[in-house]
Design a protein that fits this description.
Mean pLDDT: 78
Protein name: Carboxypeptidase regulatory-like domain-containing protein
Distance between the termini: 14 Å
Structural class: alpha+beta
Radius of gyration: 30 Å
CATH architecture of one domain: Beta Complex
Shape: extended
Largest sheet: 5 strands, mixed
Organism: Hyunsoonleella flava
CATH topology of one domain: Ferric Hydroxamate Uptake Protein, Chain A, domain 1
Length: 409
């Protein structure tokens, strides 16, 4: 009885005559404050120009001029996505990049709703087993799979994705996929204020994978990160081998600039050429010995893609994250007006039978709707939600029972 048809859980009603004390949020707003770089409580002396860029669908670019109050607010054009990257660039009146302290206002938390919970534990009986069988048939009908009873049906399958950029593809082709991927969100969540760079974060927060060895060179000492289970660790930044003379700079790499850190415990490929590139003055015998040992790879990717030059935080750049709007949910609704003879052989096992966002009562407070039942028998739940012109909310639940299913003749 099913043919293709979708309905949106979206209530689109625009009446300019209705006035509410609290207006709906029609756009997503990003607001915050701009302060002097060395003093979070001091307002900027001159006007500040801001350019905001967001990811998501669609991506956006916005401009704003901050006045003497030091406050700013961007109204975005309905971006959708659970996590959106935000980049704010600050410039002076001449358009030159200038460093400021930028802080985004924390989102207003949604009100907490509590329900009275009653837990009932009972052993499965014939009614429960019958219900589970119906739910199984319902899933099979929705997904389009007719599984045999002896088939083990997976409740969920986790799909993991790997965004292959040109830099990642280069390392992937050389040494294979990473064993561990640590993205910027994980790094920022675990970073402490006292940490001075990427190495402190890796050493104290990822001890199961990374340890440090102290190295002395030209009268100074510094740490080099190593992967557990390897004899030597080679470093890449944005797909390029890090030169040995630059290893002393890695500990102070700003976490804000790091897009991800990837660890390859057993990389594939050969390393002789890469060792020669990183350590051109190393003796051939030592280089050959290291190339034959267990080598691990730490591959670092930055936001600007400038390799070791990313040690300098871009001037006048703020990076952060916000939450966008959720996509409109949908549910399946058959088109009974265009049924074909073969449609009667397909069971209708919809979990949601009917949804109507806007119903008006008559002068007696009565309303009437019509809808089609599904093919299952048993109790059906009806939920009615109402709102009056002055904002009072009503809620009502009731049930009805389908005792018998009539076959089509």
């Amino acid at each position: 009885m099913l043919t293709q048809g979708w309905s949106n859980y979206k209530y689109s009603f625009n009446d300019e005559n209705l006035i509410f004390d609290i207006q709906p949020e029609t756009t997503l707003r990003v607001s915050g404050k701009v302060r002097a770089i060395w003093n979070e409580n001091k307002l900027p002396k001159n006007d500040v120009n801001l350019i905001l860029m967001t990811s998501g669908k669609p991506p956006g670019v916005y401009t704003h001029k901050v006045d003497s109050t030091g406050s700013f607010a961007f109204d975005l054009f309905s971006p959708y996505g659970d996590k959106l990257d935000v980049l704010i660039k600050s410039t002076n009146k001449k358009g030159r990049a200038k460093e400021y302290f930028i802080k985004i206002d924390a989102p207003i938390p949604p009100p907490k709703i509590t329900y009275e919970k009653e837990e009932v534990i009972e052993l499965p009986d014939s009614i429960v087993n019958h219900f589970l069988e119906l739910k199984k048939q319902e899933r099979q009908a929705v997904t389009g799979f007719d599984l045999d009873d002896s088939t083990v049906e997976l409740d969920a399958v986790e799909l993991t994705g790997y965004n292959v950029t040109p830099e990642r593809e280069k390392v992937f082709n050389l040494h294979g996929p990473p064993d561990i991927v640590i993205d910027n969100e994980q790094l920022e969540e675990r970073e402490e204020k006292w940490m001075s760079g990427l190495y402190d974060l890796l050493f104290f927060k990822f001890r199961d994978d990374i340890f440090m060895r102290s190295v002395e060179r030209r009268g100074t000492s510094f740490d080099i990160a190593h992967i557990y289970g390897t004899e030597f660790t080679l470093f890449y930044i944005d797909g390029e081998v890090v030169m040995g003379r630059e290893y002393s700079l890695l500990p102070i790499l700003p976490v804000e600039n790091v897009k991800s850190v990837e660890i390859l415990k057993r990389p594939s490929g050969t390393f002789m050429n890469h060792l020669m590139e990183a350590f051109p003055r190393m003796s051939p015998l030592l280089r050959q010995k290291i190339a034959a040992s267990y080598i691990g790879v730490v591959s670092i990717y930055t936001y600007d893609g400038n390799g070791i030059a990313s040690l300098d935080l871009p001037k006048g750049i703020f990076q952060g994250h916000i939450t966008g709007f959720s996509a409109t949910p949908e549910f399946y609704q058959p088109k009974y007006e265009t049924l074909k003879p073969e449609d009667w052989d397909i069971p209708d096992l919809r979990p949601i039978l009917h949804w109507e966002p806007s119903i008006y009562t008559n002068k007696n407070g009565e309303a009437k709707i019509e809808f089609y039942n599904d093919d299952s028998i048993g109790d059906k739940l009806i939920v009615v939600e109402a709102i009056t012109p002055n904002g009072k909310i009503g809620y009502f639940e009731t049930t009805y029972t389908v005792d018998k299913r009539l076959e089509n003749n």
